[in-house]
């Protein structure tokens, strides 16, 4: 059963999501609703060309990276030691989210449209969304962005214009986040790229236990 949201600020019990994790449709992308969603492991994910309302997901199995388990390959360690790239945090959030959108906007099912961009840019403005940027000689060549609540980081998208640019951003995020006491990076969806870097599944119950500790 997929629940229909209204103008009231609420979500159904996340454990009622269907097999694919789809939980609800409707509502809005306000800061308050997004924060409520992430605090319960819910996130919006929908093709903006095919849907005129947000669609909300809460997978029963969560694909995550624990910062202290990030896998840094020999080749990535070599690349890091070369100091070829500069990595920053929150230096240009808008450039990162627009680049993530630009590289996928023509794909079927593209989800990073103007409504999502506006919503997460406002989250960033209010201090709840963050970006990591990778620079080569002053040019943005990689990065990622997501939502940061307490000691959890909910990754949204990443991009790379050079080999390993997004990997470098993720390694920097995990290393920095661990130093600051962060406990979990939510990857939302499994990819071979993320799995190779230490991503693994945990149950929704364990996931909620971790993110609700702080």
Report on the structure:
- The chain has seven helices and eleven strands.
- The strands form two sheets. Strands 6-7-8-9-10-5-11 form a seven-stranded mixed sheet, with helices on both faces. Strands 1-2-4-3 form a four-stranded mixed sheet, with helices on one face.
- The protein is of the alpha+beta class and 214 residues long.
- The model has no long low-confidence stretch (mean pLDDT 96).
- The chain has helices at 31-38, 74-81, 93-102, 114-125, 165-179, 192-195, 204-211, and strands spanning 3-5, 22-26, 43-44, 55-57, 61-65, 86-89, 129-136, 139-149, 152-160, 184-186, 200-203.
- 30% of the residues lie in helices and 27% in strands.
- It is globular and about 50 Å long.
Q: What's the quick description here?
A:
The protein is α+β, with helices and mostly antiparallel strands and 214 residues long. 30% of the residues lie in helices and 27% in strands. Strand 7 (129-136) and strand 8 form a beta hairpin.
> Strand order of the main beta sheet, please?
6-7-8-9-10-5-11
- Which stretches are low in confidence, meaning pLDDT under 50 for 5 or more residues running? none
Distance between the ends: 31 Å
User: What class, by secondary structure content?
Assistant: alpha+beta
> How much of the sequence is in beta strands?
25-35%
Average residue pLDDT: 96
Instruction: Determine the fraction of residues in helical runs and give it as a percent range.
Output: 25-40%
Radius of gyration from CA coordinates: 17 Å
| SSE topology string | EEHEEEHEHHEEEHEHEH
Looking at the structure, what is the overall shape? Answer: globular
> What can be said about the biggest beta sheet?
7 strands, mixed
State the total count of DSSP E strands: 11
Q: Number of helix segments?
A: 7
